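Lecture notes, continued. The same structure-token format from the folding unit now serves as the input rather than the output. Read the line below as a description of shape only.
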């Protein structure tokens, strides 16, 4: 196996080229960084698809304290106040930083930044670029900056494993490109690999979002937190595409309505109606679909032909699906969208494994708790990129020769169907037990099954409904607690029961 030798020995490897990885690579300058991305720069990220925007307390009537308070309220008792305060305080500076690298945000008529309002934000604080193309514009700006940065070397390859030194510290990565493995030694590794939505049959996430970084961290023994909290976006466009395009929540903010096939309001009788919190609307639509109805987002009355100019990204996505939202209602359903849980990190983005850091959606920083406040995730990735760069302590020694076990990438379809049916918007004990039993035997050799198993296992253990985690058999809340696990503790807990159940299923 070849070792990449171009960079000096104090290089940091950053895995992933979404907002978190690109910003971390830039913030680490002038330290040498090798940025490893499974897709060419600009492709294969959730970042590029973000439609809403970036939350930042910029308005004259706003303050970081108010933004933090809204974040805590959305987090349903599991967001950490000091993390919310610290990230919210960074918001305005990070918008300035992005402008500094050339991202042009939308302006109001008076020339000030235009600030949008989104559900559960008490103030107008959503900064946008190109209307609903914020993610694409931010990604373009970051990619341009990385391409111009002399300290960053980009390698297009998939990271398959982590190298360790004699003390167990992470000391680099094992990659593969076109089936050829090679290693990149490093003094520290930052995982910025994004989320796990693509483990579900219905998702808004890119195909590669199968939690690959979560599997790397879990297999290295890292503490994982709140893995069960998966946010389902209520209004993915249900027109046959996989992944499913998103119809942003801002449409309902502008008056679009959720109706069934008879034109009857789907959210009638629910507090907040069409503008209820994201998880409430997701369950409302899920319930209607389970009763055999179809659900549509009707933009005709509120927006009509203005869709094309006001929401150009959604209009284009509809056009691709053969829908004209000016004259047709858009078929929608909930889809896995964002993972609140992840690899537990401290204030510097450090995981429990020496030499291993995590940033962006793969990390559990304590910001999102049981439910993410809209437009807080791009912000979190940008903020923690700076915290990682400022606090990174690159101290690992030379990497030991690794023995990478063979892993199956295999057919994801059965896992995605299982997650959709048993670990989805509404969960119960029987379904979660079945999921654990089916996933456990696959997990030693399949990373996707391993990550799915961690979600199902922690969902089974959380015998309450909180935020995005809804148990039909435990609809109330228990005292607030985080779930913290390692792969070792999970396997020790499930092995006997899961083996027996798996054997029973096989019979
Ligand atoms: C449709 C959609 C709309 C959204 N809208 C908003 C919004 O308006 N505002 C907001 O704040 N958030 C929004 N989000 C959430 C937000 O976009 C994501 O949480 C955020 O972009 C994640 O950034 P990231 O850098 O962590 O991961 P990503 O942007 O997903 O990037 C992950 C990177 O890791 C790479 N990678 C993964 N595994 C490996 C591996 N093993 N080896 C090498 N590379 C690997 C991928 O190729 C990719 O480059 C939205 C998400 C979606 C899907």
């Amino acid at each position: 196996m070849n070792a990449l030798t171009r960079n000096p020995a104090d290089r940091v490897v950053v895995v992933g080229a979404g907002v978190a990885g690109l910003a971390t690579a830039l913030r680490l300058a002038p330290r040498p960084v090798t940025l490893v991305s499974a897709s060419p720069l600009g492709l294969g990220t959730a970042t590029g698809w973000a439609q809403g925007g970036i939350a930042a307390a910029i308005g004259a009537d706003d303050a970081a304290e108010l933004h933090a308070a809204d974040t805590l309220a959305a987090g349903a008792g599991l967001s950490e106040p000091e993390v919310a305060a610290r990230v919210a305080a960074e918001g305005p500076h990070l918008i300035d930083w992005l402008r500094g690298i050339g991202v042009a945000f939308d302006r109001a008529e008076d020339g000030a930044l235009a600030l949008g309002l989104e559900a559960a934000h008490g103030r107008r604080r959503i900064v946008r670029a190109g209307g609903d193309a914020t993610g694409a514009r931010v990604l373009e700006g970051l990619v341009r900056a990385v391409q111009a940065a002399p300290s960053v070397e980009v390698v297009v390859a998939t990271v398959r494993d982590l190298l360790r030194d004699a003390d167990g510290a992470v000391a680099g990565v094992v990659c593969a490109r076109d089936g050829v493995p090679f290693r990149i030694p490093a003094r520290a590794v930052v995982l910025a690999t994004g989320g796990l939505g693509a483990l579900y049959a219905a998702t808004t996430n890119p195909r590669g979002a199968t939690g690959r970084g979560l599997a790397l961290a879990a297999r290295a023994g890292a503490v994982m937190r709140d893995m069960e909290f998966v946010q389902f976006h209520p209004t993915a466009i249900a027109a046959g595409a996989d992944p499913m395009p998103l119809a942003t929540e801002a449409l309902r903010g502008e008056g679009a309505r959720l109706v069934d096939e008879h034109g009857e309001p789907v959210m009638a009788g629910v507090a907040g109606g069409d503008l209820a919190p994201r998880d409430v609307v997701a369950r409302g639509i899920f319930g209607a679909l389970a009763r055999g109805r179809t659900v549509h987002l009707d933009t005709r009355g509120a927006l009509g032909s203005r869709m094309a100019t006001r929401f150009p990204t959604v209009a284009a996505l509809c056009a691709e699906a053969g829908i004209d939202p000016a004259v047709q209602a858009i078929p929608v359903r909930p889809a896995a969208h964002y993972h609140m849980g992840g690899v537990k990190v401290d204030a510097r983005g450090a995981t429990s494994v020496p030499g291993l850091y995590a940033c962006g959606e793969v990390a559990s920083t304590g910001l999102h708790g049981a439910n993410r406040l809209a437009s807080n995730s791009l912000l979190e990735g940008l903020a923690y990129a700076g915290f990682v760069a400022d606090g990174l302590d690159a101290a690992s020694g030379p990497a030991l020769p690794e023995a990478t076990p063979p892993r199956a990438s295999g057919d994801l379809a059965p896992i995605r169907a299982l997650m959709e049916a048993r670990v989805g918007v509404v969960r119960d004990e029987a379904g979660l037990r079945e999921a654990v039993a089916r996933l456990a035997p696959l997990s030693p050799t399949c990373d996707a099954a391993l990550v799915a198993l961690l979600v199902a296992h922690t969902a089974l253990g959380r015998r309450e409904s909180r935020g995005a985690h809804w148990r039909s058999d435990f609809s109330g809340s228990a005292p607030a607690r985080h779930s913290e696990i390692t792969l070792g503790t999970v396997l020790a807990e499930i092995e006997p029961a899961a083996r027996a159940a798996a054997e029973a299923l096989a019979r």
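Point for the exam: Confidence is low (pLDDT under 50) at residues 1-5.
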